[in-house]
Amino acid sequence: MRQRFLVYMVVVVVFFGVDFLGFCNGGKLVKNFYKESCPNSEQIVRDITWKHVASKSSLPAKLLRMHFHDCFVRGCDASILLDSTASKKKTEKTAIPNLSLDGFDVIEEIKSHLEETCPGVVSCADIIALAARDSVSFQSKTSLWKVLTGRRDGKISLASEVLANIPFPTSNFATLKKDFEKKSLTVHDLVVLSGGHTIGVGHCNLFSKRLYNFTGNGDADPSLDAEYAAFLKTKCLNLSDNTTIVEVDRDSSLSFDNHYFKQLKLNQGLFQSDAALQTDNEAANIVEDLGASSDKFFTEFAQSMKRMGAIGVLTGSSGEIRKKCNAVNS
Ligand code: HEM
Ligand SMILES: *[C@@H]1O[C@H](CO)[C@@H](O)[C@H](O)[C@H]1NC(C)=O
Ligand SMILES: *[C@@H]1O[C@H](CO)[C@@H](O)[C@H](O)[C@H]1NC(C)=O
Ligand SMILES: *[C@@H]1O[C@H](CO)[C@@H](O)[C@H](O)[C@H]1NC(C)=O
Ligand SMILES: *[C@@H]1O[C@H](CO)[C@@H](O)[C@H](O)[C@H]1NC(C)=O
Description:
The chain is mainly alpha-helical. The chain is built from 13 helices and two strands; from the N terminus they run H-H-H-H-H-H-H-E-H-H-E-H-H-H-H.
């Protein structure tokens, strides 16, 4: 009897605990949340995003990574957008992994248009999620994944919380798995979402140890393809170069496709965290599947983005709808 009660309690706690934290798939987010309150909002986000991508091809990678960093720290609540102030001290954007985050001006431009059309209605957190999707979709001119909406904006942003939540490019598989588990994401999500690295660039100093001093003996990472390592050495001349950038997905960093997974199979993943996906059987099988079928990659990416986009969201009357994305309402 007592045992049965305990089992019951565990079920209740797990079930409601998960729901409380908003970790359920989509949580309380819905399709087209602004249908009545701001009918043109999704169109406005798309138009402005596309206008910018048309003249800046690096933007999709910036916005996709911004969405990831927003969601992994305090949930998808636009905490990544807040500027430090005298009273707010150091916010997330000032932390080291913010290196090369960009696209803040585009989010702010979208926000100011939306404030003209429907003041106080559309959250900055939803704008990031929509703009990330739309920017990546510019190339194919179709929405690559569905974005549920209804997120609200958080009031807290702390640089000190970033390192504990954003995965390191030097992490091994076990660590990455834990980083994602903390966000209720699976190994499957980890592999699929790492596919975000099919676009964009990385700075030399974040992987150059793999080229020049992997174990401290002036050696290279043996798991890195030798020809690729030689190529990277022509770009990154020494261990301290923190300004040169290279494509994360070799020769394909502007097209959103499954090429990243093919490169992993050739031992040409740029970061240790990319190569790590080949060191676990379950993950390597997923890499294999995604590399073999771009349809599969697009389908799976859409599903995992839905889960990532729901991490710790504020809904209902939690948080607020900011007037400007870089500051909380006073
Ligand atoms: C699995 C753990 C992950 C690690 C360790 C990681 C690490 C990194 C690092 C170190 C960079 C280079 C930043 C720079 O040098 O400027 C980068 C770039 C990028 N990451 Fe990740 N990342 C991870 C997961 C993700 C996820 C889940 C997404 C999105 C779905 C993502 C999207 C991107 C994009 C688009 C870029 C290129 C940014 C640009 O071009 O400026 N990453 N990542
Ligand atoms: C990122 O952090 C550095 C300090 O580590 C800061 O100088 C820089 O302005 C930050 N970038 C953004 C976009 O806020
Ligand atoms: C390589 O790593 C070792 C051990 O960490 C360090 O002592 C050495 O100075 C490094 N070499 C270079 C060129 O930085
Ligand atoms: C390392 O490379 C960078 C970029 O090529 C260069 O500016 C810098 O002087 C080099 N540093 C050393 C210590 O060789
Ligand atoms: C790059 O390295 C130089 C020299 O070590 C340092 O002064 C500078 O702050 C670094 N820049 C970034 C963006 O980390």
